Amino acid sequence: MAGDLRIGSAWTRTVSFRFDGETLTAREGETLAAALYAQGRRTLRISRDDSGPRGAFCFMGVCQECVVSIDGRLTEACRTPVHNGLVVESVR
After folding, report:
1. Residue-wise over 18-32: b if at least 16 C-beta within 10 A, else e?
2. What is the pTM of this model?
């Protein structure tokens, strides 16, 4: 399914990263949100208000629904480029 959601072949290098302990791959240059979405990952965090799932919504850094934890810091997945060895945790 991952290849079905990516347009064109602009990226040639594949990188590996970890999301919630699972090793995934992405194309170099993709944002983390795009890479996760392309692999069918829709839930990136759980809302503190209603315990509902949250994920990428605007894909441009306005809504902050795609917040994840990288190295203990909260950051927006839609504004984070994927790189080899990146370790990401969902926010619960």
Report:
1. ebeeeebebbeebbb
2. 0.81
| Residue range 14-41, pLDDT digits in tens | 999 999 999 999 998 899 999 999 989 9
DSSP 3-state of 15: strand
Q: Decide: 61 and 78 in contact? Cβ < 8 Å.
A: yes
The ranges assigned to domains in the chain are 13-89
Q: Which stretches of 1-92 are assigned E, i.e. beta strand? A: 14-19, 22-27, 45-46, 53-54, 67-70, 73-76, 86-89
Query: Vertex 27, ends 56 and 29: CA angle to 5°?
Result: 75
- The CA distances from residue 79 to 25, 36, 60, 61, 83, in Å, are 18, 13, 7, 6, 13
CATH topology of domain 13-89: Ubiquitin-like (UB roll) (3.10.20)
